[in-house]
Amino acid sequence: MTGEDRFAGTAPEGAVPDETPDVYGAYPRLTDEQITFLAGHGTRHPVGPGQVLIREGDQCTDFYVILSGSVAITEHHGTPDERLLRVHGPGRFLGELGLLQGQLAFYTAHAREAGEVLALPVDRLRALMARDPCLGDLVLRAYLGRRAQLVGAGAGFRILGSRYSPDTRRLREFAARNRLPHRWIDLEADQEAEALLRRVAVSPEDTPIVIWREHQVLRNPGNAELAQLIGLTPPVPDRSQNDLPVVGCGPAGIAAVYGSSDGLSTTVVDAVATGGQAGTSSLIENYFGFPAGIPGSELAERRVLQARKFGTQVRIPAEATSLEPDDGHYRVTFADGSETLCRTVVLATGARYRRLKVPGIERPPRVSVAVDTEIREVRGDDVLRSNVVEQTRTVEQTRTGERRTVDVRALFVFIGAKPCTDRLTGVLALDDRGFVLTGDEAEARSAAGVWQGQSRGCLSLETTLPGVFAAGDVRSGSVKRVASAAGEGAMAIHHVHDHLDHTTADPTRPNGDIQAPSGRSAAPGGDPHASATHDRR
């Protein structure tokens, strides 16, 4: 029987007093063979009582295995709010998902008594995980479980703000979508809010705030500022160059994995979080290979780790604001002013669920259905109390317009999705709903001479700009499913290689002067349909 199979009241071999039981597989004990294998690539170090191995707020560069003694995992170490989270004994290893992703630590790990640990650089651990799939799966499953437990325990930074504040909701959504350990303190309802505001010398009017490690306080930070605080994404140069940026990190963003594994220098960016809309699903049950289903957030984390393994650079949050041809390449500019020069681009920006634009909808809603009816207003204070609905039924060609109030406690909103293509108007041809046209439809809307200069036709996932591809929900005519989006992401990389293999300069015009569908240089703004009827002889 392994440590994972034991009940909480059973002390496994090698356990120390008060050791946290491994009930859910998040704290496995390595076998002697696995420790011997790791020892051949690491260094043994003696540790003394109280010695800190991992400090909250610092970036950890080593993977630790406990050889003797025990290690405590605490939050707010050395402060009046210190809290014990876990205790580990010999055979267990330290760390959680942030170690593999390069994030700062959300906890402190310190020795409880004299002992010995084995230390390996994280880069070496990644290489060993790739060589030994059993070890890699063991560590990955443990780290995913530990991240989930940190999130559930409310460890990490604190968000203090009003439930009615859009910025509070924005920060909470950003933290939740990226599975960042945090705790929300309700300005109106939590008793500790007032005392905490006094301690950090912030007035209620200046909320929301983010508090970390007691002395770090951010007042209404942007998502990028919060990401920088916890090391979610590494600093990037103002100007960079690579083969392929993948814009969007949803299921179609799997293109980043295939791009990197094929030897292309690849960067994947997303304005909010990994996973796209699929990442918000509590359980995806129809994705092939996962008969018991898989949470969307876990699927997203596995994709990112896999992409990083092949050398993909991940930037979150990073909002792409423009796409322009530049001397035979494409220049992608981001909201922070940085830009990257690339040979090809894959657009996987997906679509966002439409919001019900009625007064009061921002209050916490909850589900009822009525035919021939439209919601005009929702009412309530801290919870939903009622809806104002209008009859849309037509009687003798006249809309009745009758309004009534319905007492409800919940409302389910499912009114479709809007493609994330606002920045692409005038750059690429879009259909009448705003989705990106590709393949034959894109070729029919391209500026004259574009494809003759490429000595080939428009590929099935290619847009009106040669070398720019669209995959997943953002593409017109795509099947809005996780599996199909992932398949299109993989197919897009095949097209990328086709494009690079067949790229030729057009001698009739200056190098790189690629035209947008409107017939001018591709840049934001303008009419994307101006050349829809050009002569394609």
Brief summary of the model shown:
It catalyses: [thioredoxin]-dithiol + NADP(+) = [thioredoxin]-disulfide + NADPH + H(+). With 537 residues, the protein is of the alpha+beta class.
What does this structure look like?
The protein has eleven helices and 27 strands. A five-stranded parallel β-sheet has the order 15-14-13-19-27, covered by helices on one side. Strands 2-6-4-5 form a four-stranded antiparallel β-sheet, with no helix packed on it. A four-stranded mixed β-sheet has the order 9-8-10-11, sandwiched between helices. Helix 3 (122-131) packs across helix 4, helix 8 (255-261) packs parallel to helix 9 and helix 8 packs across helix 11. It is globular and about 75 Å long. It has helices at residues 32-39, 97-101, 122-131, 133-153, 166-177, 192-200, 223-229, 255-261, 296-309, 439-444, 482-502; strands at residues 43-47, 52-54, 62-68, 71-75, 83-88, 108-111, 115-121, 157-161, 182-186, 209-212, 216-219, 239-242, 244-247, 266-269, 313-315, 320-326, 329-334, 339-342, 345-347, 351-353, 373-380, 384-391, 394-395, 398-399, 403-407, 417-419, 468-470. The longest helix has 21 residues, at 133-153.
